[in-house]
Amino acid sequence: MAQATHDQVNLMLHLFELRREPRLRQARQWFSENFHITSAAEMMQKFPPNSEGNVNFRMVASYWDMVAAIVNRGLVDEELFFETSGEQWFVWDQMKPVASEFRAMFKNPHSFENLEEHCRRLEAWREKRAPGSTEAMRQVIKQMQEQMAKAKK
């Protein structure tokens, strides 16, 4: 196991502090409760540009893509980060079904590339340590989303 440096740990703590910023915390909660789309068209219908939902989505997606870029470049010890963070995987798992449409729509094949690569490695790391845990997490998330949908009705 590699030893994380003092600077890497400080950067991780700073990234955690940013997650606690009230506006980002609000956007993250919104994302968890509301971002359940299956197409870019649905995204634009439900969360049009400059709407609160669109702003929340961009805030969460850009935060985690930035964090993924930092980790992907080795500025933070990857294993330590994986051991202590998993929200980015949830965000990517929600975005994954529409990522290719977003890339085509914005004519940028690199959109969310950092987050995608980071979460691919996170999943592989997690499955090596706890086989079957990724699918179990998906099932739990699905059940939670179904419960939230029932509660909204």
Structure report:
The protein has eight helices and no strands. It has one domain. α2 (22-34) crosses α4 and α4 packs across α7. It is mainly alpha-helical.
Fold blueprint:
Blueprint: H1 6-19, H2 22-34, H3 40-46, H4 52-72, H5 78-84, H6 87-105, H7 113-129, H8 133-152
Helix pairs in contact: 2-4, 4-6, 4-7, 6-7
Order of helices and strands: HHHHHHHH
Structural class: mainly alpha
- Domains counted in the coordinates: how many? 1
What is the 3D form? globular
Q: Which range does the strand content fall in?
A: under 5%
- How many helical elements? 8
Number of strands: 0
How far apart the termini lie comes to 48 Å
Over the alpha carbons, how many angstroms does the gyration radius reach?
16 Å
Averaging pLDDT over every residue, what do you get?
94
Unreliable stretches (pLDDT < 50, length at least 5) are none
Largest sheet: none
Q: Helix proportion of residues, in percent?
A: over 70%
What is shown here, in short?
Helix content is 77%, strand content 0%. It is mainly alpha-helical. The chain has one domain.
Keywords summarizing the entry:
153 residues, mainly alpha, 8 helices, globular
